[in-house]
Each structure stands twice: as C-alpha cells, then as structure tokens.
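Deliverable D5.2: sample structural annotation.
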Amino acid sequence: AIGIDNYGRYALLFSTISLLTPLVGLQLPYAIIYFVSRYQAREPERAGAVVLLGRRLTAATTGLMLVIALLFASPLSAWLFAAPGYAWPLILGAILLMASIQAGLNDTLLQASERFRTLAIARLSTAIVGVLVLVVVAKLTPGLTPVMIVLAGSAVLRWLAVAIPARTVSNRLVAHSNFREAIRQGSVILQFSLPSGMLAFAQGIAMWIGNYYLTRSPYGLRDLAVINTGLQWRSPILVVMASLASALLPMLGRYIGQDDHSQTQRLQRYNMILNVGIALVFSILVILFSSFILKLYGRDFHGQTFLFGLFLIVLVPTVYCNVHQQYLVATG
C-alpha cells in the first residue's frame, strides 16, 4: 500500500529504532524482571529502588530522543533517508521508541509479578485494534506518514494499556524505597544493564550499517523492502517466544534464587526444545510458500524468494541464542 521504496524507508527507520532501543532503554527491563522476581518478597526496598531508577532513567532518555527528533527532524531526515521530506515519519518514530520502551518497562513489572493474564489481554487487545486501524488507513490514505501515525498511536495505546495495572505493582514496590536508595542502585546500570545494552547494540550495529549503505545503492530501497519482509515474517515466532519468556523468566529467577537446579534445568531444556522446534517448522513452511506470500505484497516483490528465504531461515539460530540469553538474564 505504501510502495516498495517507502517500504524500504520504513525498514530503515525501524532498523534505526531497533538499534537505539537497547541504548535508550538501557536494557533496564531485564534488570527489573531479575530484581523484582527475586527480591520483591524478601527485600522489597531493593526491588523498589531498581523500579524507581528504571522509571526515572527511561523517562529522561526517551524524552531526550523525542526532543532531538523534534528539533532536528529535517537534517536527520536528510541524513537517514537522503531526502529532507520525511521529517514527520522520523518524529513519529521517536514517539514509537518512547512508547515502546515505557510499555516494555511496564510489561516486565507485570511479568515479574506473574500477572500474565493481564499482560496477555493488554497485548492482544491493543494488537487487534492496531491491525484493524492500519488496514483501514493503508487502504484509504496509503503513505509512510499515515502508517507511522497508526503505528505510533498503537504503541502509545499499548503503553497506556499496561501502565494502569503496572502502576499498582510499581507503587507498592516504590513505597518501600526512595530516590536516594535508587541512586545507590546505580551499580545495576554498570554491572547488569549496560553490558547487556552494549552487547545488543554491537549485534545490531553491523546490520544497521549494512541497511544504511544498501539504501544508497540504485535499487537498495527495494532490496531492503524484501529483506524487511523476510524479517517481519519472523515476528510471529518471536512474539510467541516473548510470550513464553513472560512466564519463564520469573519462574527461572525464582528457582535459581531457591537453588533448585533440577527444576531450572528442566525448564530451560523444555524451553529450548519448544522454541527451536517451532522456529524450524515455521521457517520451512513459510519458505515453501514464499512465492505465494510475496505475490501478496505486490508486483515489485515477485522473483525475490531467495532473498526472502535467506533472511527468514536465520530465525532458527536467533531463537537458539535468545533462549540462552533468557537463561543468562534469569541468572543475573
């Protein structure tokens, strides 16, 4: 609906958002789920301090990104897209970044408190609303800016949907602490969140550089659009994996804290078999039907099955690594 070139710009924008997310969010959701799941019962003041620290820091970092986008939208558009006419998509991308990080912070509070039903309802309802509105907007007013308005609005809606129930958990924990205690937990940034954030940034920077320079070639936006299509078809499995992790990480953290090694290993083994198995079967099926899938995206996507499949099959090693990363997060 937005054309293959604009779809390439969309892919580059989201690649940039993905690159910035671990740095702007400081990977604090991982720290929060670790500390809250382990310490909310026996050391609530420590868990509350980390929650307060996460709220204040992410408010500052996401707010800074939004201000930069508002002040320098045109030059940033010219640098990122090699064209100055995409300032609004860039600003909306900054709003989406802010809302996604804040929603992720609230997600982890609900996960750590094992309020999975509340989280599932919020995720499902906002996703359905977002998809329905996106389909209507893409049909009536196709273009990059309208699509980004819907996506940014959906991210804000998702933020609000989890913020209300998460506020109850947050207030209960923060009541045991104060900002001075939160400052003392600053070592969490250096010892836990910062290394994780830098690792994620290092993993993402190579792909972002490749995407950026690809768009500078004559047909680069079109190639990036096809690549992004393959990456997007990985999303259903990654969403399923994230849902499983919502339940798994708090349980892993609790079992590890109790030194229950048999239960820990059993959970990790089942998690690995389930995730890798689903990813493998899904990848094979989608690659087999790739010609039909690409026809749905329009005439410009015909004949791109190899490139599409190449970026889809890496889902399997990605899932394998993510399962091990979940275990590392649970162990701290």
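Annotation notes: The longest helix spans residues 144-174. Residues 254 and 260 are 9 Å apart (CA to CA).
The annotation will be released with the project's public dataset once the embargo ends.
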